[in-house]
Amino acid sequence: MDADTEAARLVAGTTADDGWEPGPDIDPEGWTEWQAAAVDLLSVDTSGEIEWVPGAERIIRKGERQTWVANYGGGKTQAAVQFTVQVCKAGGRVVYVDVENDGREMAERLKPVASQWDAEQAVKDRLIYLPNLDLPAILEDEKLMDAFVRLMLATDLLVIDSLTRVLAGFGYDEDSNKDIARFMRRLPDALAASGIAVLILDNTGHDESRARGAVSKTALIEAAYAVSGGKSISEAKHGTIKLKRTRSRSGKLADYITAEAGGGDYGPLVAHEGPAPVETDKISAREKRRAELADKIRDGKQFTAQDVVDGWLVTVNTARGDLNTLVDDGVAEKIGKQDRADVYGLPA
User: Fold this and answer.
1) What local confidence, expressed as pLDDT, does residue 207 receive?
2) How far from 263 is each of 53, 82, 234, 317, CA to CA, in Å?
3) For the chain, which terminus, N or C, has the lower number of CB atoms within 10 Å?
């Protein structure tokens, strides 16, 4: 008897001999028992609204496993920091496991965002930042695991930064599909089953089109976004981080996401539909404004941030970012003070 016939016989609950073949006279009791234990898809209620992580509508759902992938400096950590503040401000709780970055550097990224959004208290109340957390040790110790589980049950979003180093901590090989699957079962899958969203930051391979290492990195999650734009921003330079969806099992997630960052001006992650534009109108307007500023400074005009605000109707942070960008480009420099405000003009 072949395996399929044996399986059919066992499920049907028959006691026929080896010559048995499935047919219309199968005893239905076995089928009925399995049917009673199965999920009746026609009875599943699909009328309710999707449960999104607070502040993350069309970005990540509760119980979803998602990866954000970029090359080094591509902007994935900056986007995750701003996303963390966004979720906290909306009332969600975030646990950020960071085995990739320096704590001081992360504080320097987070503080201006929380300050601009008036979200300092929300971050204090709803963010638990865990640098260098030894996940393997926790999962091997019953008491530590119990404490970790209790922490996770109060969490809406777990951020892991980054996958490569976490896998190394477990002694797993990022090029091994078996090791990736083993890690996913031990942590992200179990947390997602409890309704916790898991966001995993990862690095691209040489072609920058997908996460480096085993192909199952992408196959074992619900959604993935490719991140870019981080190299064009800094503390002094303003720019836009872009996240383009490369995989999704759901048609409910945004096609692409943008977030303004750098230069003292930070915006929330915003979900968009349709193909991502090569250059948004906002970016074009910013570049045009900076070009006009540069021309005026070359003609001998001097500016404070307030002058830029009055002339171009932008925020003070955006104006300061524009002027600092021109300083970085060698077009301008700080030449003095006016009412305690920096004055920018031609380099000496």
Assistant:
1) 46
2) 28, 14, 6, 7
3) C
